[in-house]
Amino acid sequence: MGILSRFRDVMRANIGAMLEGAKEPAAAVDQYMKQIQLDLGQIRAESASLLAAEGRARRALEECDAEIRKLQRYAEKAAESGDDEGALKFLQRKATQAEERKKRQAAYEEAAGQTAKLAQMQEKLTADVNELEARRATLKGKLAEAEAQQRRNAATSERSAFRELEEKADLALNEALALAELRGGSRKDDLDELMAQLERDTQAAKEAQVASEDGNQASGQSESGPVSPEEELAAMKGKLNKES
Question: Which of 42, 45, 127, 144 is most buried, by CB atoms within 10 Å?
């Protein structure tokens, strides 16, 4: 029977239900489209032969009807002329032809039914093609929008990554400059100032100590306490001896 053997499956096929369960709708659309195109090609190939078969069945039925009408007229004329035997023979042939007509009518109805089914299938598949084309266009639009959004997301991500990298670079540069300033300029100046102050403090302490010792000697005291006149005299002689 060719394509007609799949009549029920084709007519029951639901494009929407098929695509809902598809993991990859775009690939499913292409697959269904290819199958439908193959089915439509087979329909076109079988249409000519089925239409020819329907035409032959119709003509055979029409010929049978014409034969029956002819036999009916012959029987009536024979009866009018008083030829009952002849009339009976025509009626018997008519009855035989009537049985043949039943067969030819059944053959014609079958052929006509096949061509009708083929037309229904073609109409259904054409509608499916239109639906698939619309869904394909919708899917292409969605895919194009998704790709555009991905490009926008990538551009945003790149800008964000660049800003983050730029911020890290600025932070690293600032840290390096601060460290260089600490190690090079200000830090060195601070250390020099501290060393100078330390030297000044040390010198001042020495001078204070010398002044204290001179004062003690002038007052006749030592770190161990007051001295006797004899001890002070001995000290004065010793100093004079050193100076001479």
Answer: 42
- DSSP tag of 220: T
Eight-class DSSP state of 14: -
Positive or negative, the CA dihedral 69, 74, 77, 83 is: negative
Q: Give the tens place of pLDDT for each residue, 7-45.
A: 888 888 888 887 777 788 788 888 888 989 998 999 988
Query: Quick check: 137 pLDDT over 70?
Result: yes
The alpha carbon of 44 is separated from its chain's Cα centroid by a whole number of angstroms, namely 39
Predicted TM-score of the model (pTM): 0.53
Name the nearest CA neighbour of 48 among 104, 106, 3, 103: 3
Q: β-strand 225-226 against 221-222: which pairing, if any? A: antiparallel
Q: Residue 165 is inside which H or E element, if any?
A: helix 84-184
C-alpha distances in Å from residue 32, one per residue of 10, 13, 21, 46, 129? 12, 11, 13, 21, 9
Rounded-to-integer distance, Cα 128 and Cα 5, Å = 19
Helix (H, G, I), strand (E, B) or coil at 219: coil
CA dihedral 113, 115, 121, 127 (to 10 degrees): -120
Burial of 191 (0-12, 13-18, 19+ CB in 10 A): exposed
